[in-house]
Amino acid sequence: MRRTVFNEDHEAFRDTIRAFIEAEVVPVYDEWFAAGQAPRDFYYKLGELGIFGINVPEEFGGAGLDTHKFEAVLYEETARAGVQFGGSGVHVLLALPYIKMLASDEQKRRYLPKFVTGEEMWALAMTEPGTGSDVAGMKTTAKLSEDGTHYVLNGAKTFITGGVHADRVIVCARTSAPSAEDRRFGISLFAVDTKSEGYSIGRKLDKLGLRTSDTAELAFVDVKVPVEDLLGEEGKGFSYLGHNLASERWGIAFGAYAQAKAAIRFAQQYVQERTVFGKPVAHFQNTKFELAACQAEVDAAEAVADRALEALDAGELTPAEAASAKLFCTEVAHRVIDRCLQLHGGYGYMNEYPIARLYADNRVNRIYGGTSEIMKSIIAKSMGL
């Protein structure tokens, strides 16, 4: 069936991104992989390309659009090439919605022009050691100073993607203790300057996959955060976090679908070139049946991902629908990528082959943004169970 989610503008963007990846990323990607991160100056190139400003209002240097479809194209093209754009996805998919939703006009004038150019890269610091999906259990605190000019931030965060290169981090912290009636009460959000005294980056975490994406532990010891960098209202942070979870989970769902689609492409190429028992691997019925089954699953995941994208752009994607899309697409990707790796035989286990890296990169999709088990809980609750 014909796909209708993208128009000519999106396809022109696709051509630009594909050419950029071939020229600027593929030749050096092995170096990034070995280093465990993309170089900082790469983000300036993304800024020059206009990727960071698509959904930023024109008055702050952006294109002024309100759509996730260009992000969707980006997911498909990076997966197709077997590459990642470092931690830049967090910058756009996670951080930008909070700035647009919560920042005052004065804050937007300070933050957004540098956001668009890549001069200031952003990350989101929510997860803490020992809390995981239980955001309400966070221990990081931000206490208002006696003179009311700044907050004093103390605590630690972990699994912060983009945390090594970030210039500003949206930090979730407790400005007051939880109430007896509501554990979620008292959380606030701050746009913290990473050059602040007392702010430190701990380990750059050694991950199974997503090797070119810098993920770090962060620590805050009496970090002074000006009151001008409080995002939104004090104490309402948890509701803000919930507001943007749908778009985050759509992003994970769409990215997973794109990885599964890319896995079939890699496997098709391999089985047509690889010969065993005097015949191409593609000649055997098992190969045909396995790839056909994978293609059927990816067709279904594409339909789910596209439907969620249209709903997101229309402002109608519900938390349960986002959870359903994430659960379905990530589980499909898990099955498809595993079967495509199997068709590579021993070579599928070698990191020089994109399917091996894809296998490792994909695994986290069923964990971050809320585990598959959390997604099932959300869906079940929406069913009245």
TrEMBL record:
Species whose genome carries this gene: Streptomyces rubrolavendulae
Protein's name in the database: Acryloyl-CoA reductase (NADH)
MF terms in GO: acryloyl-CoA reductase (NADH) activity; acyl-CoA dehydrogenase activity; flavin adenine dinucleotide binding
Cofactor: FAD
Keywords: Branched-chain amino acid catabolism, FAD, Flavoprotein, Oxidoreductase
Keyword flag Glycoprotein: no
Keyword Repeat in record: no
Enzyme category, top tier: oxidoreductase
Top-rank taxon: Bacteria
EC number, UniProt record: 1.3.1.95
SUPFAM superfamilies, per the entry: Acyl-CoA dehydrogenase C-terminal domain-like, Acyl-CoA dehydrogenase NM domain-like
Acyl-CoA oxidase/dehydrogenase middle domain ranges (all copies): 123-223
Location of the Acyl-CoA dehydrogenase/oxidase N-terminal domain: 7-119
Gene behind this protein: acrC_2
Single GO BP term: branched-chain amino acid catabolic process
Domain Acyl-CoA dehydrogenase/oxidase C-terminal: 235-383
